[in-house]
Amino acid sequence: MEKVVLVTGANSGIGLALCERLLSQDGELRLCLACRNMGRAEAAKSALLTSHPQARVDLLHLDVGSARSVLRAAQEVKSRYPRVDHLYLNAGIMPNPKVDIKAFFKGLFSSNVINMFATAEGLLTQQDHLNSDGLQEVFATNLFGHFLLVRELEPLLGQEGHPSKVVWTSSSNALRSAFSLEDFQHRSGTEPYSSSKYASDLVSLALNRHHNAQGLFSSVICPGLVMTNLTYGILPSFFWSLLMPIMWFIRMFTNTLTLTPYNGAEALNWLFLQKPESLDSRAKYHSLTSGLGNNYTQPRQMDIDDETSEALYGKLLELEKVVRRQITEEAERQ
Ligand SMILES: NC(=O)C1=CN([C@@H]2O[C@H](COP(=O)(O)OP(=O)(O)OC[C@H]3O[C@@H](n4cnc5c(N)ncnc54)[C@H](OP(=O)(O)O)[C@@H]3O)[C@@H](O)[C@H]2O)C=CC1
Ligand SMILES: CC(C)=CCC[C@@H](C)[C@H]1CC[C@H]2C3=C(CC[C@]12C)[C@@]1(C)CCC(=O)[C@@H](C)[C@@H]1CC3
C-alpha cells in the first residue's frame, strides 16, 4: 500500500514547501492537504499538480482551531485511509504580534544578536483571544487541535509492522519562561505563541512515552526563521525591506536564518526519511542553512522534563473530556 502523509496548514509557507519536497522524494505518496480554507487548498493542490502531474493529492477540510472541525475531519480521515504513515502537525498562528523595537536595537548591537535572531527571546508579544470553544485561540490552534487530532487518529497511527511518525512544527521561540502548567492555555500572559510551542515540545515527549510501544513516534522540529505569511505579518513590508539586507548579512554568521520555505522544510523532509526508532524524543530537529546556502538537519536537546510533560499530558486529557462533553451536550440540545 502507498504511504499516506497528512499535512496540516499545507496551503502555504513551510507546509506547502514540505509537500513539494515530499512529492519530489516519493512519487507514490498519497498526500492529504488538511486546510481550513478550501479555496487556498485548491490553489495549493493545483500548484503541486503543475510540478508533479501524476501525484495523488487529496484535500481535507480542517480548522485545527475548532474542536468540532477536528472531530469531523478525523472521522473523514478514518473513512478514507486504513492508516496514516506520517502526520505533520504544521498549522500555526501568531495573531497581533508586537515587536519591542527598543529591545531589538539594544540586541542588534550586543553579543546576544545571533541568539536574538534565532529565538526572538524578549522581542515579541501577541494579543490572544477566546475562540468559539472557549479556549485561547493560539493554544487551540497551535496545540490543542493537533493533540485532539492525534488522539482521534490513534487507531490509524502505528499499526502492526507499520510504525507512524507524528511531527510537530515547533520553534526555537518555544521558551520555558513563557509556559506555566497552572496557565497552560496562556490566558494571562503576552507570549501565547512561545507558550504553545513549548507545550508542543512537552506533548511530543509524552506521546512517545505513552505510544512508542504501539508504533507511534513523535518528533519536533524548528524550521529556523523563514519568510512566510506568518513572519510577514509581524512588521509592515517597509520594515522587512530594510531588514532583509541585515538578515542576509547575519546569515553568514548563523545557520538558523533559513529564510525560504524550502530551506525551512529541511528537517521535516529529513524526518520523513528516518527510521522512527532511531529518533531522539528529547531532541528538537533544526532546519539549518549554511552561509553558502547548504541545508542540513541538526538535533539539539530540548529544555524539557518528564514531570512537566506528564503533568501537561494529564491536563490535556482532562480538557479533552470537557470539550467532548460540551460538543455532545450542544448536539443533544439541537
Ligand atoms: N516562519 C517562521 O519563521 C517559523 C514558523 N514556524 C511554524 O511553522 C508553521 C508554519 O508556518 P509558516 O509556514 O511560517 O506560516 P504560514 O502562515 O505560511 O502557514 C501557516 C499555515 O497554517 C494554516 N493555519 C492557520 N490556522 C489554521 C487553522 N485554524 N486550521 C487550519 N490551518 C490553519 C494557515 O492557513 P491559512 O492560509 O488559511 O491561514 C497556513 O496554511 C507554524 O506552526 C509556525 O508556527 C516555526 C518557527 C519559525
Ligand atoms: C523592529 C525591527 C526593525 C526589526 C525587528 C526584527 C524582528 C521582527 C525579527 C527578529 C528575530 C525574528 C524572529 C521571528 C520573527 C521576526 C523576528 C522577531 C520568529 C519569532 C518567527 C517565528 C518563530 O517561530 C521564531 C523561530 C522566529 C525567531 C526569530
Pick out its properties.
single chain; 334 residues; alpha/beta; eight-stranded mixed beta sheet; two-stranded antiparallel sheet; 12 helices; 10 strands; 45% helix; 16% strand; binds NADPH dihydro-nicotinamide-adenine-dinucleotide phosphate; binds the ligand CC(C)=CCC[C@@H](C)[C@H]1CC[C@H]2C3=C(CC[C@]12C)[C@@]1(C)CCC(=O)[C@@H](C)[C@@H]1CC3
What does this structure look like?
This protein has helices at residues 13-25, 38-51, 67-80, 101-108, 113-119, 137-153, 192-211, 229-232, 237-250, 261-264, 266-273, 306-333; strands spanning 4-8, 30-35, 56-61, 86-89, 97-99, 124-126, 164-169, 216-222, 283-289, 295-301. With 334 residues, the protein is α/β, with parallel strands linked by helices. β1, α1 and β2 (30-35) form a beta-alpha-beta unit. α6 packs parallel to α7 (192-211) and α7 (192-211) crosses α12 (306-333). The structure holds NADPH dihydro-nicotinamide-adenine-dinucleotide phosphate and the ligand CC(C)=CCC[C@@H](C)[C@H]1CC[C@H]2C3=C(CC[C@]12C)[C@@]1(C)CCC(=O)[C@@H](C)[C@@H]1CC3. The site of the ligand CC(C)=CCC[C@@H](C)[C@H]1CC[C@H]2C3=C(CC[C@]12C)[C@@]1(C)CCC(=O)[C@@H](C)[C@@H]1CC3 has 17 residues, from α4, α5 and α9.
